[in-house]
Design a protein that fits this description.
Layout: E1 2-6, E2 18-26, E3 38-42, E4 45-52, H1 60-86, E5 91-94, H2 97-111, E6 115-119, H3 136-147, E7 152-154, H4 157-165, E8 174-175, E9 196-201, H5 206-209, H6 211-222, E10 228-233, H7 239-248, E11 256-260, H8 267-272, E12 276-279, H9 288-295, E13 300-303, E14 317-320, H10 325-338, H11 344-355, H12 357-373
């Protein structure tokens, strides 16, 4: 079946659908990036890529309109090339409502192509607040895009509930999680000795991830437990301030280590060289890194922030109250003392049942077929 997917990862369904991906990115003009469209096969899927440059206008309204048009012109160039190569698609799948969903709405009206939405945006949550800050006409456009789709999926029950709560979509929302990299078996753990290694992997955005609280509580625990180590992977706007917090407590590069970003080839090593995973987010729609940690046999301490609650139970870790330093300290201490009691093989098998490639693929294929068979 012929489908075009405005999303980054579609490898799961390439055996069942003749698919293509449109990927458009915003680039600063300081980058030597061409506006020209390029296309080619990546991982067996045809990808159409283009870039657009942000507006330089200092007038907000003009800048927003300019960026809106620049983005959609780039997407449309990719789509026209796809039409020339392969003809009209049977279905469009968009990864989020905005901005890609707006383009799908346009194509459905002018070309008669049905579309589905696979939503994972966290902006609907009150803690995030981005949806509520949108102008009224944007919210109306969101609702129109949802209502005219042939189906909506979300990566978690939590996110589906947010979409319903905002009254954006009245029909059933299918739950299709993100793709989780699950090994055949959990990697062999290091011989831990006396040192307990705690792993954090996230964008270093403290408003969302609340990493500063983890650092502060970790510093307190170091007064009670001598051999602790906190490994923080990822980068972001708050890295410097977080490093300064660790430095003020005289633990930077002694017990707290910032490693920056990592490659996919290093994932197994991260999970095998640490003893438990920590996620202290204020909100999450799913959290792939937490799911991957558990799939690799690493127990996790996570906040009750939405998505991760759906796969973290007494067999895979503990749940922490959001923004509660006392509970965070209690649960981190519990994990320091009990991380070795969790069964890595059991966690790996449980995640396979829920989030294996085959399971997710079957759900996606059924979701797409239902949309294409919907004549209403």
């Amino acid at each position: 079946m012929n489908g075009i997917f405005i999303r980054k990862h579609i490898e799961l369904i390439k055996d069942d659908f003749e698919s293509a991906v449109i990927h458009v990115e915003k680039k600063n003009k300081m980058h030597s990036v061409s506006r020209n469209l390029c296309s080619g096969f990546k991982n067996g899927v045809m990808v159409y890529e283009a870039a657009y440059f942000p507006s330089e206008s200092h007038i907000k309204v003009i800048g927003n309109i300019s960026n809106f048009l620049n983005y959609y012109l780039a997407v449309f160039r990719c789509f026209k090339k796809y039409l020339k190569d392969s003809g009209k698609p049977d279905l469009i799948s968009v990864q989020v409502v905005y901005p890609a969903g707006i383009f799908a709405l346009f194509l459905s009206k002018f070309y008669g192509i049905p579309y589905v939405i696979s939503e994972h945006w966290s902006g609907y949550s009150d803690e995030d607040g981005r949806f509520e800050k949108l102008p009224g006409y944007y919210k109306s456009l969101f609702r129109k895009t949802f209502e005219n789709s042939k189906g909506v999926s979300a990566v978690s029950d939590y996110l589906a509930g947010l979409i319903k709560y905002k009254k954006l979509y009245g029909k059933e929302i299918k739950i299709i999680p993100n793709v989780v990299i699950i090994p055949d078996s959990p990697p062999e753990k290091r011989i831990s000795g006396d040192e307990v290694r705690i792993l954090s992997v996230s964008v270093l955005d403290d408003k969302t991830k609340n990493i500063s609280q983890v650092i502060s509580v970790f510093c307190e625990l170091c007064g009670r437990y001598d051999k602790l180590k906190l490994n923080i992977y990822g980068d972001g706007s708050d890295r410097k301030s977080l490093e300064e917090l660790a430095e003020r407590n005289s633990l930077l590069n002694r017990k707290i280590f910032f490693h920056g970003n990592f490659s996919n080839s290093e994932i197994g090593r991260l999970y095998s060289e640490n003893d438990f995973f920590i996620l202290n987010s204020n909100f999450e729609t799913f959290s792939i890194v937490t799911a991957e940690a558990v799939a690799n046999g690493l127990p996790a301490a996570v906040t009750k922030c939405g998505g991760p609650e759906e796969f973290i139970d007494e067999n895979s870790g503990v749940r922490i109250n959001v923004n509660d330093p006392a509970d965070l300290k209690s649960k981190m201490e519990y994990m320091i003392l009990n991380y070795a009691s969790f069964d890595a093989v059991r966690m790996n098998k449980s995640m396979k049942l829920r989030y294996s490639n085959e399971t997710t693929k079957d759900k996606l294929v059924k979701f797409f077929l239902n949309a294409m068979n919907d004549r209403g």
